[in-house]
Design a protein that fits this description.
Blueprint lengths: L1 H104 L1
Length: 106
Amino acid sequence: QKLYTALQKSHRSEQKLIEKCHELNNTIVGNTAKVQAALRLSRQDQQSIQILKKEIDKAWKMVDAAKGREKQSRETVHRLREEVQNLSKLVDQGAGLSMGQEKAVN
């Protein structure tokens, strides 16, 4: 009788252990799927980060190019203003000579 009781108890314990192993195995399978999904998302995030970094670099290059063009435009405007001033002086001097020559003729 004691042997039979011990055998039943051992069998119940074994069944509980088998059941616990199945539960743990299912948990492992579920966690494995979650880890794989997290790794996939991480890879996608890394790809997105790389794409965004390239876009940022491209944008900074565009900003630098725009600054260069703006600097050239300002220099051009400055040169043209100086040229306009010089031409205005020449016109004024020419007009002065014309009036002086006109008075001399009269």
